[in-house]
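Researcher: Here's a chain I'd like modeled. Treat it as a single chain, no partners, no ligands.
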Amino acid sequence: MANQLSHLDAQGRARMVDVTEKDVTQREATARGRVTMRPETLALLASGGLPKGDVLAVARVAGIMAAKQTAALIPLCHPLPITSAKVDFDLDPAGAVEITATVKVAGRTGVEMEALTAVSVAALAIYDMCKAVDKEMTIDRVRLVHKIGGKSGEFTRAGESSGG
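Model: Modeled as a single isolated chain. Structure tokens:
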């Protein structure tokens, strides 16, 4: 069946996809997500005035570490020798932090899950470091925006720039 999920065998049981015969290619994925907060919280974050310290430095390291540990967090992901993991932030003065993570590998399978995990954990780190002053923050819009490499080729989400 052409549209069968790759992580299910013929009997519908979960399985790790066998990538043994796939070619090693350069692969890259970029994901984004957003943490929305009160403008006053964002001002504290931007000025370094939060009690826990430099929020974005901690969130950047958390995101990179998460990308490297994706296979330990997502049951059927392959452990990958990531060659690059980059996490960046854009501050929206209306009260949000936009997170962008780009992950690269020379491998037999892609790094979409690693990029999505990096964004998610960076967002959680921001929430953790800011929750003392703003418990109403929201984490949303976590999504894959671009990927290259592998059998399925290139994907760019409509309305999103592909740069990371």
